[in-house]
Structures are given as C-alpha cells and as structure tokens.
Amino acid sequence: MTAARISQEVMTAVAETANATQELIGGRYRLGPVIGQGGLSTVHRAHDEALGREVAIKWLNVGPVDSTREEAELAILAGLDHHNLIALLDAGSHPDATGRERRYIVMPLVRGMNLQERLHGSRIAARNIGEIGYDIAEALEYVHAQGVVHRDVKPSNILLVDYGNNAARARAKLTDFGIALAPGVERFTEAGTTTGTAAYLSPEQAAGEAVGPATDTYAAGLVLLQCFTRTVEFPGTVVESAIARLSRQPNIPEYLPDHWRGLLTSMTARDPRDRPSDRELVSALRQVVIAESGRHKEHEAFFAGDDGSDLLMPIPDESLHRVTAMAARLLESPISVVSLHDGGRTRVVSHYGDQVEQIVRAVDVNGSQPPRSEPYVVEDALADPELADLPLVKPPIGLRFYAGVPLTGSDGRTLGTLSVADLVPHSVSEDQLRNLRDLAALAVGQLEARQEGPRTGGTGVGSTAAAGL
Q: At what angle do helices 278-295 and 213-229 cross, to 10 degrees?
C-alpha cells in the first residue's frame, strides 16, 4: 500500500468521525464516532439526549435481502428479554447522505469487550471460562424456550460486560441474532446451503441439514474449547472447515480436568442427540464453576487478566485496531502496537500480529522508561552495537527493525507510542514516517474520544461490539 493511499484512509476516517458527531438521529440520539464495523452493520457511539445516557446505534445495511433480514432481527430482538442478552432499546429509520432510509437499532453501550478481543489478552482462568459458559448457557436456554435458534454463536458475538467494580468475573451477554431462526420467520437461505461462521459451524450446519438448539450447544462448546487452547479448532475456508469437522471430533486437551473434558466432549458430539439439553448444560456448567472455585483461590479482577497483568488487554475499539493494522501495512511489517505509558509501566492497548504476545511475555516492561517524544527508527538493530545485545534483538525474538512515533495528547503530553517492527531490516522514507504520525494522531483521537482515558482502578471503557456485528 502506498503512502498516499494510507494518507487518504487516514483523512477519510477522520472526516467520517468528525461528520458523524453532528447528526441527530430519530430526534433524540446525537451520533458519535464509529466504534465497530462489519459486513452487515456499523455501530456508532451515541448520546440519548432525551434520557441523558450513552447508547450504541447499530446501522443495518440496506438492500432487498438485507431489508428482510433487518425486519427479522428486529422482530426477534423485540421479543427477547433476559439478563444475558443485549436488550433492544429503540429502533427506527433515518435518511443517509443520499436520502435513502436506513434502519437502525438502539442498544445499551456495553462497557467491556467481546470474547474475541479478550482472547488476544492474557490467558483466561478456568473458573472464568466456566462463568462465561454458564452465562451463555442460560441465554441459550432462554432463547431456545422462545423457539429461537441463534445459529452464529462465536467469540465476537459474546460480550463481556465490565461494570467498573474490579469484579473477579465478567458477565457474558449473547448478541447478534441476524441469522437466527424463529417461529414465523422465513429462512433466508435455500435448502442445502450453510449459514453461520465457518469456524463454529456444527456438523449439521456444515452438511446443510436441519438445525436446532443442539446446533448452538455445539458452537458454544467450540468457543469454550478455544478459551483454553487459544486456537480455532476448525480453521480455514467454509469447505475446509466443514470437511474437518465432518471427518473428526475436536481435539480436547489431555491436560484439562475430567469435568471439562467430559463436558466439552459431550457439547461437541457429532450427533446432535448426544449433546446435553439446555437444562443439562446450565446445570453442568454451574457444577464446573463450583468445582473450579474450589480448586483455586480468588482471582484478580477479570479485566486485568487471570495473572494480574493487563499488558495485553486491548481497549476494545475497532477503529483503534484498524489504525494498528494500517500502520503495519504502511511499513509492510508483521507487527504493530499501540502502547500507553501508565504509572511507570507500558500497557499494550491494541496490537496487530501473532508475535506480539510472545514478545510482551518475554520482555519485562514494568520498569520501562517514559515514551520518546520524537519519532525513533532503527532500520537494522544488528548493525548497531548498542542494540545488538538487547533481549528483543537476540534470539528467540530476533527483532531487526523498529519504527515508533509518539502518541501526543491534546494537552501536549506524550501518552505512549505507535510502533511497527519486523524480523528483517527495513528502510523508512520521510513520507512513511509522516503517515505513521498521522495514524498516531488518529489513534490519540480514538483514545480521547472515550473521555475516560486508559482504564485504571476498574474504570470501564465502551465496547465496539455493543450491538454485535
């Protein structure tokens, strides 16, 4: 990607954010910045001026097929009311810049993150995994009793609510019923086709067969398994993933206790009739939580990670993650990080690249110096005698290239760094460095837009996935 294209992306994103904050939706919702985006919807932070509260507005895509889907999702959401589901507060339509009416849904602004984001952080304690499973099992028991099958249970559709009280657990809420089946709602896919996310499809979904409540149970089992293994059990394309689950059972790690192995094996049984019923699943996960609570002492606050460290806990903002990914693309590097300096330690709040967790865990950053107030570039660390012996440069990490620019707050303070790194040497042009600074400014804008700053002392942050994508 060229520097000019990166610059255009930055300017477009800034303009969209600035324009969005001026609009009043439905006569009462003051639209704020985009906080999440997917193929089927876009989520904005907004202020409900009638009740003086922050909410999330989910814009639904337009088009003949999507219109039917939108009406179905609204009908399903309006009929559901459970503490482990995201509530529907309001709905309506509003003209966009072209004059076309766009459907929107108003939902609570959830403070926390989705489970997919949480999986990028430190490992989750077994007890916390059980608690997440228990909450989702309760939600599924309720929706199945209403005749609704979710059909797309996956980590990004599970929101972890942070009430800002340093709780030892998060409350999990299920969201995004856009492809759910419910009584009286037409199925939008033709017979024999597959609907859902490839990695979490049940065998019956993969085979294009009829689905039921047991389909959601299977997907929930894969999600809980991923919480332990940190990997997707059936990766790849729809075809590759489908063939894999039709040819083998998921691999349940031998190191897990018997109660977890037995439960995950039954939840992911190939035959839906062999999976636990909703009531059985709720009861089993309740017992798992009790068993795990007895095995371990009280844990640190959930959103600080199960080891008391929040080094890899991302501030959940899709726009911020896009900035990180754009920085990596700009310099054609596999690693990019947005880090904040907080109380004498460095905290990663957004990152791009599989190597980031390994790097952060291998290097002690608790005694880090304050971030530099000027750009800093190392084109080849091995060529500099003063850098060649640093832990980051020596094996097993072996970083060769680094470029970092300061995150400068509106008050002039240096808050942290936007950095890019690679295992091979790089050269950096002035244009690339200038665009990296533009991206840093955009990241600061996203951080300051929350008006809460880095989370310390249990203060929550607004989730990008408040309404699901």
A: 20
